[in-house]
């Protein structure tokens, strides 16, 4: 027999129930409004308050996004060959040289998608969830991102990538959060690129001339601003060839294909309400 609690957890696993930390807690809505990043520009501080930096041995390693008070959505390849115990997550961060009011957390566990595979060129099912050793409290600088609906399609929408990654192939990481706008390509346009032989249906492509994610942006979010007024995470920065090379669009893990999996592995986290 199902108890009320077991039914609640079953529905959470199916993505039907949202646990709100407070009535004012809304995912994907920054309190600061701003109307790997190559060709990017400075983001208004804390205008993307779900974005986290994952540092390894005090150096920029990957990006990620807060989806509950204790879970970060990132890329599988960020953890597959590296010990997460050597990593630290910076939450509520804008400037790597100004860590005042930044929450730092160690990682207690990482779940990489069980079908993750990698070749010399690309990663498939490149998605992972990192559990923070201690939960965070949502505030004006720490807000979780909203997840898309299962199977939601963002073709031809304009997305935003944010991160502290390298600002060029041979250049250093950015000290401040950068953002860039990219157009999400149709599956047909994606398959017509020179990456076609490496692509899978769970991947999506995005491109704008002179703009791209780069090393250190891996795992960060590709965001879509919805008409209802909140951002949702359409993709996870996954792989590419070079940075901002017009022959090769950036490739992202399609988050909408993994909603049941994400919900299954985050049932013990507190969420915020959606619009």
Q: Beta-strand percentage?
A: 25-35%
Rg computed from alpha carbons, rounded to a whole number of angstroms:
17 Å
Helix content: under 10%
C-alpha termini separation: 33 Å
Average pLDDT number: 82
Shape: globular
Which strand order do you get reading across the main beta sheet? 10-11-12-15-14-13
- Number of H- or I-type helical stretches: 4
Give the low-pLDDT segments: 1-20, 34-39, 211-216
Count all strands and give the number. Answer: 15
Order of helices and strands: HEEEEHEEEEEEEHEEEEH
Largest sheet: 6 strands, antiparallel, barrel
Output the structural class.
mainly beta
Walk me through what this model shows.
With 275 residues, the protein is mainly beta. The protein contains four helices and 15 strands. The strands form three sheets. Strands 10-11-12-15-14-13 form a six-stranded antiparallel beta barrel. The radius of gyration is 17 Å and the shape is globular.
Question: What keywords describe this structure?
Answer:
275 residues; mainly beta; 6-stranded antiparallel β-barrel; 6-stranded antiparallel barrel; 15 strands; disordered N terminus
Layout of secondary structure:
Elements: H1 4-13, E1 41-42, E2 51-56, E3 59-66, E4 71-74, H2 77-80, E5 87-91, E6 103-112, E7 117-118, E8 123-124, E9 128-132, E10 158-163, E11 178-184, H3 187-191, E12 203-207, E13 221-225, E14 231-239, E15 250-254, H4 259-264
Short recap of the structure:
This protein is mostly beta strands. The protein has helices spanning 4-13, 77-80, 187-191, 259-264; strands spanning 41-42, 51-56, 59-66, 71-74, 87-91, 103-112, 117-118, 123-124, 128-132, 158-163, 178-184, 203-207, 221-225, 231-239, 250-254.
């Amino acid at each position: 027999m199902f108890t009320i609690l077991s039914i609640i957890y079953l529905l959470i696993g199916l993505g039907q129930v949202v646990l709100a930390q407070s009535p004012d807690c809304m995912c994907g809505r920054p309190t600061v409004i701003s109307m790997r990043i190559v060709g990017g520009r400075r983001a208004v501080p804390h205008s993307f308050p779900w974005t986290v930096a994952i540092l390894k041995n005090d150096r920029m390693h990957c990006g990620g996004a807060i989806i509950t008070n204790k879970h970060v959505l990132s890329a599988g390849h960020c953890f597959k060959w590296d010990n997460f115990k050597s990593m630290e997550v910076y939450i509520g961060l804008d400037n790597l040289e100004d860590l005042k009011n930044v929450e730092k957390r160690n990682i207690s566990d990482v779940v990489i998608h069980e079908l993750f595979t990698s070749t010399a060129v690309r990663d498939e099912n490149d998605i992972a969830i990192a559990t923070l050793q201690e939960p965070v409290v949502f505030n004006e600088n720490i807000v979780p991102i909203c997840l898309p609906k299962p199977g939601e399609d963002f073709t031809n929408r304009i997305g935003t990538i944010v991160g502290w990654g390298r600002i060029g192939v041979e250049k250093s990481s950015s000290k401040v959060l950068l953002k860039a706008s990219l157009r999400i390509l149709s599956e047909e346009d994606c398959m017509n690129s020179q990456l076609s032989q490496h692509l899978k249906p769970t991947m999506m492509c995005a491109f704008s001339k002179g703009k791209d994610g780069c090393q250190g942006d891996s795992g960060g979010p590709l965001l879509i601003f919805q008409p209802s007024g909140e951002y949702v995470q359409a993709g996870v920065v996954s792989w590419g060839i070079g940075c901002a090379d017009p022959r090769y669009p950036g490739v992202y893990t399609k988050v909408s294909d993994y909603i049941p999996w994400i919900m299954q592995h985050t049932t013990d986290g507190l969420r915020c309400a959606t619009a």
